[in-house]
Amino acid sequence: MDDLVRAALTKWPDVPACRGWLGLDARGDWYLRDERAQAAGAFPAVKGSRIEHDQLLGFIGRNYAADEAGAWFFQNGPQRVYVELEAAPWVWRVRQDDGGVAHVVSHTGRDAAVGSAWIDEHGRLFLATDLGLGLVHTLDMLDAATVIESGAWPPQPLDFGALLARFGVVLSPAAAQPRA
Prior knowledge:
Helix content is 25%, strand content 33%. The chain is an alpha+beta fold. The strands form two sheets. The protein has a seven-stranded mixed β-sheet. Strands 3-2-1-6-5-4 form a six-stranded mixed β-sheet.
């Protein structure tokens, strides 16, 4: 977390959280969901505006975390901005070093160590890592298949809902929020 964010949390500890305004799709793209996008429908059916500003993307990535209930958020200064997730809190890119050893990098640029691999009922490949559960990016499935065939990531089948429950992931903090 950025030092300026820590300082803002200390200075303004009681800023209410924001829900429904930020989404992360299955390809690792962030979306700003203004009132009009939210009124038009739930994420990911209505995504909103894709965030493309590199410095903003870096700031979000550095200040991205989960709460104790499994809801993911971006700490924007003193305010938590909860994230609507299409599939998982992380989207993995599979990379191989010069020696052919595979590793994964998150959509935020963070390296992760793979603990287990899972395939849901839709054929999507998820990896549980030291950072948490994530979906392998569609463009990296061939590289991931090579790693699986090598025996390094033997995938286990598990339905999507059970997968989320097993790893404690909340896809929609807005929907999970009790109505006032």
